[in-house]
Write a structure and sequence with these properties.
23% strand; 3 domains; single chain; FAD/NAD(P)-binding domain; alpha+beta; seven-stranded mixed β-sheet; 13 helices; globular
């Protein structure tokens, strides 16, 4: 193939290169359904995500400003334990029984936790809690509970933009500085981040008429033949209204390959029938090394940005309602129309799943997979009234409403967090090539040791590492 590495790094879903068994079948997924990388997502600019930036440049995609920024900051509002506060008011008004030394702004409190209760090696490669236990060996919740009172821990969790990192299944390593931060200048791709895989697939298909691209095929099994080649078994699937299911009436589809590159999510690896994944250590890594984070996002469209005229108006709000985070997402520069992001939630989304099953569909954007129901819209409006401290009647019905929840097959998660007790570098090294005797590689960002397993960059980095094995 003549494509450069950044281009190879971006294949999505299922790309099959078929000439009998002489070319590999590549199953490379760059997952966009994570913290900030959906169709309206954003990726950090600069050298931190160099592969993404280089790929966007190579594809000649337009890069534009994303004015909203990231995370919470001084302009944020909080609705905690039934009380409304600004960021500055948290110090004195937060309804928590905090010790005097913890009545400080959030950034200082996070820094104090890191500074006062951890010790690092001279070269700062190892980080331990004061009792000498490596942070990677313990969860963030356990670490906090060892050194902080219950009210302070609850305050940190309730006021955090993302709460998935506070569970018992998440390692404390490299997770202590994820508190509130000032909005950062970020860039996005014109047309949405989905234009990256779309353009990559277009380029892939143009390179050769032998290249094929198939959607909606579930890889069920990999079997090695006596000649060293592999037979891959697929089940055809269908996706309706955002739900993907197997078409049991369709026969299995079998393909032959010399090498196999898997860019599939953790849940798919767990259910893949291949002996290379049955090894005790590999199976443990798949089931336990990372935790799935199930998140959701919701968008309401309006003819005008009515929320900007409220007394409790804010570009970003954190609440203890099922909305969790609310963003003033965008207002057109040519019309008065605006988009509100009522909910960005990485907590428990069962209430939204149930609400989406009830009632009638409301106007969306033509994609039934993300269409909301009048029941789910009503609940969102009810909670928005709480966040803005207004009545339900003061929250207008949206002209369109859409929502995506990342918790089901075939993705099963929005992003991943490392679990306690697992050394990232060791896990990544083993999982890139699970079986020493097989030419089967994992290229997805599931086991990215750099901490970018929730970003496109993490997937591209894994592809680069796999390519070195193939040189």
């Amino acid at each position: 193939m003549t494509m450069s590495r950044p281009v190879v790094a971006g294949f999505v879903l299922l790309a099959m290169l078929l000439v009998g068994c002489v070319v590999a079948i590549a199953v490379l997924a760059v997952r966009l359904n994570d913290k900030t990388n959906e169709t309206l997502g954003k990726e950090k600019a600069g050298t931190d995500h160099a592969l993404v930036n280089n790929t966007v440049h190579d594809l000649e995609l337009d890069v534009v400003d994303f004015e909203l920024g990231l995370g919470s900051g001084e302009g944020s509002r909080y609705y905690l334990r039934g009380k409304h506060m600004t960021y500055d008011e948290l110090v004195t008004e937060a309804p928590y029984n905090l010790p005097p030394e913890n009545r400080v702004d959030l950034r200082t409190l996070y820094w104090n936790v890191l500074k006062n209760f951890t010790i690092s090696s001279p070269n700062e490669t190892d980080l331990k809690s004061l009792d000498g236990v490596d942070l990677y060996e313990q969860s963030r919740a356990l670490y906090y509970n060892k050194y902080l009172d219950t009210e302070t821990f609850q305050f940190l969790k309730d006021s955090a933009s993302f709460i998935s990192g506070y569970g018992t299944r998440v390692s404390a390593f490299r997770s202590l500085l994820r508190g509130s931060s000032a909005p950062l200048a970020v860039k996005t791709v014109k047309g949405g981040f989905q234009t990256i895989p779309q353009r990559l697939v277009e380029q892939f298909l143009r390179v050769s008429d032998k290249h094929k691209f198939f959607r909606n095929h579930h890889l069920k099994a990999i079997n090695r033949q006596s000649n060293g080649n592999y037979v891959l078994t697929f089940q055809v699937t269908e996706t309706k209204a955002g739900i993907t299911t197997e078409i049991k009436s369709r026969p299995f589809m079998k393909m032959c390959a010399k090498k196999v590159l898997l860019g599939i999510p953790r849940i798919a690896l767990e259910h893949l029938d291949w002996e290379g994944l049955r090894q005790e250590t590999v199976l443990d890594y798949i089931k336990n090394a990372v935790s799935d984070v199930q998140a959701a996002k919701m968008y309401f469209g309006y003819d005008n940005a009515w929320w900007r005229n409220l007394d409790k108006a804010a570009s970003h709000a954190v609440s203890m309602t099922p909305l969790r985070q609310t963003y003033d997402f965008a207002v057109s520069k040519t019309t008065s129309k605006g988009i509100l992001n009522p909910s960005y939630n990485d907590g428990d989304n069962r209430i939204w799943r149930e609400a989406m099953k009830s009632g009638e569909r409301v106007p969306g954007v033509g994609d039934h997979s993300i269409a909301m129901t009048n029941v789910s819209v009503y609940l969102a409006r009810k909670y928005l009234a709480e966040v803005f401290n207004i009545t339900l009647d003061d929250v207008p019905e949206p002209s369109f409403a859409v929502m995506s929840i990342w918790d089901q097959y075939p993705i099963g998660t929005a992003w991943y967090l490392w679990a306690p007790g697992y050394k990232r570098a060791e896990v990544e090294s083993r999982m890139i090539k699970p079986s020493a005797n097989d030419d089967v590689y994992i290229t997805s960002n599931v086991f990215s040791s750099t901490g970018r397993s929730g970003w496109i960059q993490g997937g591209m980095e894994m592809v680069e590492k796999v390519l070195k094995h193939l040189e």
